Task: structure prediction
Amino acid sequence: MDIKISVETLQQTFHFEVSDYIHNENGHCKFEAFSNGQFVVGFEPDNYNCLQICKNPGLLNEDVLYLLADKIEQLKL
Result:
């Protein structure tokens, strides 16, 4: 399932497509976000279901990552 999520900062708006994978399926993180078709960040839920960064190949700013994680958590997937 792909979900479109936008994250706004003071300087820029970022658009992501987020995929929800079965936990640890084929080396994927639970949630993986793509921008313009490129994998940019993966998240895994911790024991409290708060998302933690799993992979960050896009080297995005942590503020953007936290905003994106918050939006994914709000979806209660």
Residues 40 and 57 are 5 Å apart (CA to CA). The chain has one domain: 2-74. The chain has a mean pLDDT of 90. DSSP finds one helix and five strands in the chain.
